[in-house]
Request: fold
Amino acid sequence: MENPTKFFFFKGIPFLHTCYDMEYIQRLRDEFKLQDEDVIIVTYPKSGTHWMIQILSLIYSKGDPTWVKSVPYWKRSPWIEIKNRMEMANNRTDSGLFTSHLPVHLFPKSYFTSKAKILYLARNPRDILVSLYHFKNYIPCYPLYSTFEHFFEDFLQGKVLYGSWFDHIKGWLPMRNSEKFLFLTYEELLQNPKVSVEKICQFLGKELNEEKINSVVENSSFPVMKNHILETKEPMPVENMETSRIMLMRKGICGDWKNHFTVTQMETFNKLYQEKMKGMDQDLFPWDQC
Ligand code: A3P
Reply:
């Protein structure tokens, strides 16, 4: 980490002072009360979070795009851990939709005693690394890096916002046997969005006919979403993040890491991946299938 002072650490996880508050994150775990009908999108950053918000919003509005066109994503599904959001969340959004990047050990305890559901979206960590590398410059006060190589090293060591990708996914994966937890990947979503949308509907107990499902898929496609995000007039929820809009919808593909990693970096990453993910069911991770 070339400029570590911008982060504060809470229970081993780096957060930024600009968007997060230590005391607030501390309170969140005990005080945030999820309700049985709530649905929380949980992701490691840059896994396709906004895409999932779009899909869920459209499912909730039965394929009608009016809501996603008129209300920005952070109001439709607020991040529970971002400063000043908990009060808002406890006042309830109408939808009961929430978003979070928190690792399991910092997540509100009320989830585990309620019937609230989690939809966990995972993505190839190599593509996440590249996506975050491009996005970080648009996050206010994110540490500066002079080279991709330095960022690559910090990502591998978990010295990035929200910590290690490996710890995040390994922390959450044991939940996948629970009926209130759905594990999905960015790659399967990209490969067959309709099947994924149907799977999500089934998980949420929402019945949408063919026409509505098609509308969900169409209105959550990369070009349509890009237009929505760029055309939204409301200012971004965090100060000085206005320019990040364009980077939220950068390329939207699988495998862009191949355009960034050197052969040595690929080998280093693969070696660490094998070590860290040893014993995990590799069929869950279709990173190379698209
Ligand atoms: P890239 O930077 O690789 O293009 P998050 O929402 O978690 O910040 O994730 C952002 C990533 O999801 C970006 O990846 C973005 O392009 C991609 N993304 C967003 N909407 C998408 C869509 N409809 N289809 C495919 N990828 C999408």
